[in-house]
Structure formats: structure tokens, C-alpha cells
Specification:
The protein contains 13 helices and 12 strands. It is α/β, with parallel strands linked by helices. A 7-stranded mixed β-sheet has the order 1-9-8-7-4-2-3, sandwiched between helices. The structure holds pyridoxal-5'-phosphate (PLP).
């Protein structure tokens, strides 16, 4: 019940337990190509989707350094822990991080972004470090806020900037229309909404992003340079469209997980998150726990709930984990002790898990003599 990584269902576990395939050859390529096609559909793109071995952060790191020249700028509107992380990633490549810090728990407002960009673009230009891209987090898992990506993307387009999106905790859980919304790089992972094991970063890339990669003169290593990846797509595409060995078992698991989603129907799959979120939120409200973000911007993928003022939330999380086998997450950084987070990804969406959670929570309160 944590906000990722999450458990997988039996079909995915069986898939990852099968004999290991080499990362080339006809049997492998058929599975690899089908996986890529399904990921394209889920992203809403006809362009390239890469599976880059590593955590989501690896692809974000590589994308930033590949698109934006050293010494130039990326604008980051941040409203949580992963927004701040974006800033660290950008600066680690010698790129300047511009940005605005929004209060945690509130969404990034498109109007605010527009005003901030209007001011920042000429200032950065005058300082000799022009803004080339906006980087933002779709679902800010630290607060449970789902930023309004479609409207934010429209603002970014109106300034003719590229858009790099951390969709690690939203991809597969809420709709993303990569091509229609004009996103340039979008990174998801298997181990959150798709409920498969961690191991590859699922990375959609627009033609505009590829053009920026071509035009970027800065050195940025080899493995995470997107130009390296494209060289293999273009030159070894029919048998080995990636530069290195692939974690084939992980990709077999992604294949199974994504096929399951399409077999159920993508809309029906998205609905399972909304249903689980509603059940947890209603049940928790009866036990005195209110939602931390505004309901209209709360991602259906997790529920971030306010701690009650009458006891330390850490004690409840320890009880649920140690006595009841239910692992939840606390708050990060300033939100530690103030909120707790319940994930709705993977098998924990099942009604019997949700009722087990709610009755265990009730038992804790009763046992403590609390209302
Ligand atoms: C989990 C998470 C990450 C971290 O992803 P890694 O795969 O560990 O790099 C980044 N961003 C968000 C929004 C997340 O929820």
C-alpha cells in the first residue's frame, strides 16, 4: 500500500519467472516490438518510446542533459519533493535551474506558470543563459497532487519551449496524450501504476526533442545520451535497437502488465484507481482522516491523508505494518508526521485489501481509546 514500488499480480510474476531470453533474436524482437507498440498507445504517441534500463531518474537525467546545452536554462515549477529533485538533476548537468516554488499540496496553476515564464524568459536571455525547456512533475507523489498537465503543456507551447515531464507516478494510472498535448519527453516506470517490477524507464520522445538532441553540442556521457539510443534505433533497428544488454525479464514483465491493461480496456483500468481511491477516502473520512490535497487535484493513484492531531501518525503506521502486515508511507521532509500516504496501485486496489486496511485502522484507534 505504499506509493511504489508495488506488488504485481500472478500473471506478471509468472512472466518474470520464465527462462531468461537474450536481448536479440526473432523471439525477443517480436515481444520487444509489441511492448513498445503498447507503450506508444498508452502514451498516446506515434513517435519513439525507449525502455532505458534503470530507474525513472536515469531517463530524466539523460533527457535533460541530452536536450539542453550546458550553461543554458530549464524552468522548473515545483510543488513538492520530486519537483525539487528535478532541480538537482538539472543542476548536476551544469544546466541552470530557473523556477518557481509553489506551496506543497497545491497544484501548479497554469496562470502562475504563464506569469512566471513571461518574467523569467527575458531575464535568462539577458543573463546569457536562455531557457530551453520547462520540466515538471505530473503526479507529485510526495503530496498526492496531480498537476493539470494538459493546461500546463499548453502554456509551455505558447512560449515555444520544450516540455520534459516526470510521469513516473502517473503513467498508466491517468490518461496522458503525449502527441496531442505537445509533450517532448515523458518518463514513466513499470513499478508504479503498471504494477510490474522496477528496472526500465519508459521514455517517450517527440521529434522536437530529437532535434534538440541533435543541436546540443555539450558532452553528456555515452549511456544516457539519447543520441546514443537513437543511433542504435536507426542503424541496428531490425535486431538490436538499443546500445546495451537489456534486462529482458523485466521487459517480459512490462509486456505482460501492459497487455493485461489493454485486455481489460484502458479506461476500465483507469477506473480501478478512481474506485479504490474513493473507497479509501470515504472509509478514512469516517475514521477522522481528511484528504491533504484539494479533492479536484488529488491523483487517483495515491491518497495523501492528514494525520489526526490526537496521536502520532508514525505509531499507527508501525502498528499497521508490524501487527497487520499493511505497509503505508509517511510524509516526506516537512510533511513528515503531518500526512500519510496510501497507494492504490497493483493488487491493493482489491476491495478485500481496502476493507482490511480500514478495519485495521479502526482497530488501532479503538485499542488506543481514541474516537
Ligand atoms: C517514484 C518517483 C520517482 C523516482 O523514480 P525512480 O524510478 O526511483 O528514479 C520520481 N518521480 C516521481 C513523481 C515518483 O513518484
Amino acid at each position: 500500500l505504499i506509493p511504489g514500488p508495488v506488488e504485481a499480480d500472478e500473471t506478471v510474476l509468472e512472466a518474470i519467472g520464465e527462462q531468461i531470453l537474450p536481448h536479440y533474436g526473432p523471439q525477443w524482437m517480436a515481444l520487444f516490438n509489441e511492448t513498445t507498440d503498447l507503450l506508444r498507445k498508452l502514451y498516446g504517441t506515434t513517435g519513439d518510446v525507449l525502455m532505458i534500463p534503470g530507474p525513472g531518474s536515469a531517463a530524466i537525467d539523460g533527457a535533460v542533459a541530452s536536450l539542453v546545452p550546458r550553461g543554458e536554462s530549464v524552468f522548473i515549477p515545483s510543488n513538492g519533493f520530486f519537483g525539487q529533485r528535478f532541480r538537482q538533476i538539472v543542476e548536476a548537468s551544469g544546466i541552470h535551474a530557473e523556477g518557481i516554488d509553489m506551496p506543497w499540496g497545491k497544484h501548479i496553476d497554469p496562470e502562475d506558470l504563464c506569469v512566471a515564464l513571461k518574467e523569467a524568459i527575458p531575464r535568462a536571455e539577458a543573463a546569457g543563459r536562455p531557457i530551453r525547456a520547462v520540466a515538471l512533475v505530473h503526479h507529485e507523489t510526495s503530496t498526492g497532487v496531480l498537476n493539470p498537465l494538459e493546461s500546463l503543456a499548453a502554456v509551455v507551447k505558447s512560449f515555444d519551449l520544450a516540455l520534459i515531464v516526470d510521469a513516473v507516478a502517473s503513467f498508466g494510472g491517468v490518461p496522458i496524450a503525449f502527441d496531442d498535448w505537445g509533450i517532448d519527453v515523458c518518463v514513466g516506470v513499470p513499478n508504479k501504476c503498471l504494477a510490474a517490477p522496477p528496472g526500465v524507464a519508459l521514455t517517450a520522445i517527440s521529434p522536437r526533442a530529437w532535434a534538440m538532441v541533435d543541436a546540443n553540442p555539450s558532452k553528456r556521457g555515452w549511456y544516457l545520451d539519447l543520441a546514443t539510443w537513437r543511433w542504435y534505433i536507426e542503424n541496428w533497428g531490425d535486431w538490436h535497437p538499443y546500445p546495451t544488454t537489456m534486462p529482458t525479464s523485466n521487459i517480459v514483465a512490462v509486456h505482460r502488465a501492459v497487455k493485461n491493461i489493454f485486455e481489460m480496456g484502458v479506461e476500465a483500468f483507469y477506473q480501478t484507481f478512481r474506485k479504490a481511491a474513493a473507497a479509501v477516502r470515504t472509509g478514512m473520512a469516517e475514521l477522522g482522516f481528511t484528504l491533504y490535497p484539494e479533492l479536484s487535484y488529488a491523483a487517483p493513484v495515491i491518497s495523501a491523508l492528514n494525520a489526526r492531531p490526537d496521536f502520532a501518525i508514525g505509531e499507527m503506521l508501525a502498528y499497521l505494518r508490524d501487527e497487520r502486515g499493511l505497509m503505508l508511507s509517511g510524509g516526506l521532509v516537512d510533511l513528515r508526521g503531518k500526512i500519510f500516504r496510501v497507494g492504490h496501485m497493483g493488487p491493493v486496489k482489491a476491495p478485500e485489501v481496502i476493507s482490511a486496511l480500514l478495519s485495521a485502522t479502526r482497530d488501532f484507534l479503538t485499542q488506543k481509546g481514541l474516537d
